[in-house]
Write a structure and sequence with these properties.
alpha+beta, Phosphorylase Kinase, domain 1, Aminoglycoside 3'-phosphotransferase, Chain: A, domain 2, five-stranded antiparallel β-sheet, three-stranded mixed β-sheet, 14 strands, globular
Amino acid sequence: MIGEDVLRYVQERRPDFAPAGPPERLPEGNLNVVWRVPGEPASIIAKWAPPYIAANPDVPLDPSRLVFEARSLHALAPGGPLAHVVTERVRPPRPLDMHTEPHILLMEDVGPHPTLGRWLRSDDATPEAAVRVGRQLGRFIGRLHAATVGDDALVQRFDNRAMQETRLAVQYEAVAEMLARAGVDDAAALGARAEALGRRLLAPGRCLTMGDLWPPSVLVAGRDLRIIDWELAHYGHPMQDIAHVAAHAWMQAHRAPDAATAQAARRLRAATLVAYRDALGVEAEALLTPSVLEDAAVHFGAEILVRAVGGFQAGYVYDGLPPEAPAVQEAVDTAAAHIRHPAEGEAFLVLNT
């Protein structure tokens, strides 16, 4: 699709919308192609899901992922069954329209705010602000998980198996090859452990998970957060959300341009995890068992690997670095250590205190 097609589509689906200029292709799109369409009464975000990863067309991807994003946005919108999870401070965009031929989602434009990664590199990311953002993020995800534990009505509605199968193929099953490329001696054994986790995660889990909790999915709007890109939402295992955000906060600190940014990223990670645990309330004992935290350590390592030496290195903090680069080797060593000895992984020690 091109800009003219998008504009025509938006006008057909939203007859009350008055365009005020051509659609703007947004550069942050990874899985999908995203435009901002200016107009009245407010600009609109249009997201198209091609049958492949937009940033990597060689990797097929089920376009029904947008159906799961639309379901998430509707569930969390005012009047939805999960509306009590969100606040005006921390929420996803409001849904406007969903169509499946082709798969296009229209939603509220929450504004051109910086992603979490860009925000961490700005003057606004003071240590105090990083703790505040981490607490907001952790509370939101904790409330989402706690509110949906054992909810039979959500199990089938959010059985996003296709996306979990893709994650198995491009991430967990690739761990052995990624580690071998980086020169890790026990790559095969560590890869088998990661693959076993990925296969277990194909089955429905314990609660609704956001599924893609990395910096581009979190917009920092002053003192508010907007959580976007819910196409990986799945009734799954909470460790995927907490391990994902922890891995990316670790990488943001590791590749920070200066000590202040690294400190902000570390504080954000700790604050997120502590606030998450506290927000779980009575569900914390069931959702943060030792085995869950071991699984989280394995995912933590797998996510670092796929960004440092895997298929999603491009466009992120290790972009362009060869496997032998010191920074990549440090990331690989940390990832391998968490997969090799998941009960000893330092990333989640704060959850045991």
